[in-house]
Amino acid sequence: MANTGDISIGMVIRYNGELCQIIEWQHRTPGNLRAFYQGKMRNLKSGKLVENRFRSGEEMEIVRVEYKMMQFIYPEGDFIVAMDNETYEQVYVPAILLGEGVKFLKEGMDVKVTFEGDNPILAEPPTFVELEITYAEPGVKGDTATNTLKPATVETGATVNIPLFCNVGEKIKIDTRNGAYVERVKSSK
């Protein structure tokens, strides 16, 4: 068994019988009181954030997890189908684990999947993806001085706010964590 001093951000622990990932972990020593650890955790089943205080030296159960880079193949209902690049085994991963990033996935992209035993418990899309704009209103010529954005649809069907100078057929880089436009991708011709 590990104790509170062994915990770090990103670890997965079993807390009240549920799997939780550590989001924040701080050691606090207030004035003349005893030291404690303040932890913010995300419940991996429900997605809810939980905050709690732990005594210094308190025993905690760290869950051993395995990370695998898998290739996204296609969505199916409430799941995505991902393939292990080494064994070619296909795994059904609940799409809710990817959050909003699932709408930016394109066939062939790599997805980081975390397993406890054979069960997928976490999934992360690539941080940045390059997608082609399939629909956008044309920009007005000369209206580039302001930081004005317009909605556009990309090849996966997701809607992203882009600058006025971006047009249909161009590739853009998108941050999957917040769905924001990052930059226009220069074509390598």
The backbone outline, from C-alpha atoms, is flat
Q: Nearest-angstrom radius of gyration?
A: 21 Å
Total of DSSP H or I helical runs spanning 4+ residues: 0
Strand tally is 16
Report the biggest beta sheet as strand number plus sense, adding barrel if it closes: 6 strands, antiparallel
Class per helix and strand makeup: mainly beta
Structure in words:
By secondary structure, this protein is an all-beta fold. It contains no helices and 16 strands. It has a six-stranded antiparallel beta sheet with strand order 1-6-2-3-4-5, with no helix packed on it. Strands 9-8-7-10-11 form a five-stranded antiparallel beta sheet, with no helix packed on it. Strands 14-13-12-15-16 form a five-stranded antiparallel beta sheet, with no helix packed on it. Strand 7 and strand 8 (79-84) form a beta hairpin. The termini are far apart.
